[in-house]
Amino acid sequence: MNGALAPDHIARLATVLDDAAIGGTAIERLPDLDGASPADAYAVQAALVERRLARGERLTGLKMGLTSEAKMTQMGVDAPIWGRLTDAMHIPDGGSVSLAGRIHPRVEPELAFRIGRDASPGDAFADVVDAVAPAVELIDSRYAGFRFTLPDVIADNTSASGYAVGAWRPVPGDLAGLAVTLEIDGAAVHTGSAAAILGDPRRAFDEAVRLADHSGVRLRAGWVLLAGAATPAEPLPAGAGVRAVVETLGSVSFKAQP
Predict the structure, then answer these.
(1) pLDDT tens, 94-127?
(2) At residue 3, does pLDDT exceed 60?
(3) Given CA atoms 188, 189, 193, 198 in this order, what sign does their dihedral have?
(4) Residue 110, SS3?
């Protein structure tokens, strides 16, 4: 596809993705996004999230995706991608979330950063991020079979569906060295290291500021930034309990209700 998508075309694609999420119905890939530029895909993402905001949701932060070298190689890119979080996606630590309407939910353990003041390109991590916490992201692509291209997943708000954040802690000196474990019903299903997040999770902040700025978006004081997955994603069955444990930071958990 050559050239930028027209505004009405962007709106139609956003409507298709939004309807799929509301109806909990998987859709085939969007051929209109074949060959689309990242800018076009992010424009669809913005229109998609704007529909949610028009229904009363509010932005609560950003999330990073494709933050591991393996995932970037798989998708043929050399930089991560980002999406938007809203209050309707928040899952209370120790609470529950309904999987009704989710298509093929999966969970990933992450680190969350609390944004202490509005961020601008060039700002240092230590000057903006005032706390860190263990986190779990609930992802749920709207595409059948979890198959998509890079423009597809960007447009679909990087498969964002929900997130839970544990207790906020002071940022430790060594973030990259922290061990991370994902548990389902008390059994460890994945173990890894925070170093899987761009080699050092602090780099996720730098990338978030840089990439979001291309779309005119800034990290705001009080927002959450999900730095990216520290292990592979794991399918989440209805009725299961999920917990992420991050060395020195503690844990975060929730229950998946049918």
Answers:
(1) 999 999 999 999 999 999 999 999 999 999 999 9
(2) no
(3) negative
(4) strand
**Those residues with Cβ within 8 angstroms of residue 158's Cβ, 6 or more apart along the chain or in another chain:** 45, 63, 65, 81, 82, 83
Partners of 245 in beta bridges:
181, 251
Q: Where are the alpha helices (DSSP H) in 113-245?
A: 125-128, 150-155, 202-214
Does position 74 have pLDDT exceeding 70, yes or no? no
The two tokens of residue 199 are 């080699």
Q: Which residue has the tokens 């080699």?
A: 199
Consecutive H or E run containing 40: helix 38-54
pLDDT in tens, 5-37: 999 999 999 999 999 999 999 999 999 999 899
Task: State how beta strands 59-65 and 224-229 pair.
Answer: parallel
118 Rama sector, left if φ>0, alpha if ψ -120 to 50, beta otherwise: beta
What tokens appear for 137 in the block? 């992201």
Per this entry, what is the length of the chain?
Answer: 258
Contact 85, 79 (CB under 8 A): no
Which domains occur in the chain, in start order? 7-257 (3.90.850.10)
pLDDT tens for residues 229-241? 999 999 999 999 9
